[in-house]
Amino acid sequence: MLARSPVALLGLALIAAIGVIAVLAPVLPLPSPSATSILDSYLPPSAEHWFGTDALGRDVLSRTLWGARSSLAIGLGIVVIGMVLGVSLGLAAAEAAGTLFEELAMRLVDIFAAIPVLIWAIAVVGIVGTGATQIGPVSLSNEAKLVLLVGILFFPGIARITYGLALAELTQEYVDARRLQGTGSAAILFGDVLPNILSPLLVQASVLVGIGIIIEASLSFVGLGVQPPMPSWGSMLADSKQTVFSGEYWLSLFPGLAIFLSVIGFNLLGDGLRDLFDPRRRTRLPKGAA
């Protein structure tokens, strides 16, 4: 199916390339991303250090590749949490249309949606703080806590989309037929309605992964995301802000380019999937591709 959309293929190729790099980072013949050498600080890109070195002499290429692991894992984890919570709430609210539960659920969604996710993320993570958190017998690492907190903040938008799609789907005649057959609400919602509205949700999820990467980079940039010594594209950009006007262009160029390519890859994939799944847009595909 993706072969019919060059845009989706391009996005998928970018995501696959970055994903392979992230997976292979530990086995590639590169210096440790945390290995320092003050004598090698601020070396420009060369045959020995392809992306140069930073203020502590750390290899920027190694840190960029290892940063892909953090950014992709957190971006994907955020969307998984948001999708599970948002889809569940959206389906439940649609099924309970006209009840107090629907009213309360949608008002809760409106409250969260009134403030941008990044603002919520900075406020919530700032209040909770960085570092590992102990919740009863469970210890959450800083990265796991970040995924959980920001993932919860993603659910309102997904819930609103799911609610609208499911509400329209529940008016279809096949749903009435299923109810007459004695099928329970949960079976109808997850066995019939959800598969029929999954396509636009996947498109939204693809775009949200790119947004999740930006949010993770933003939090790391202000010191609330991935903590040293683990590399992150956002923290690398934060480290480079003191050298913006002193000529060490490589310190901001490569992590910034990595963020750009990752986000554009997921956005292109989302646009391509939207063209494939939306019948009204299929005419825009190349002639003969359908």
Name a few traits of the molecule.
single chain, 290 residues, mainly alpha, MetI-like fold, two-stranded antiparallel sheet, 9 helices, 2 strands
Topology:
Blueprint: H1 6-24, H2 60-95, H3 100-113, H4 117-128, E1 133-135, E2 138-140, H5 142-169, H6 173-180, H7 185-221, H8 233-240, H9 250-277
Antiparallel strand pairs: 1-2
Strand order of the largest sheet: 1-2
Structural class comes to mainly alpha
* Sheet having the most strands: 2 strands, antiparallel
**Low-pLDDT stretches:** none
Number of domains: 1
- Taking all Cα atoms into account, the compactness measure Rg is 22 Å
For CATH, the homologous superfamily is named as MetI-like
Structure characterization notes:
- The chain contains nine helices and two strands, in the order ααααββααααα.
- It has a two-stranded antiparallel ribbon.
- The chain is elongated, with a radius of gyration of 22 Å.
- It has one domain (53-278): Orthogonal Bundle (MetI-like fold), CATH 1.10.3720.
- With 290 residues, the chain is mainly alpha-helical.
- Helix 1 crosses helix 2, helix 1 (6-24) packs across helix 9 (250-277) and helix 5 (142-169) crosses helix 7.
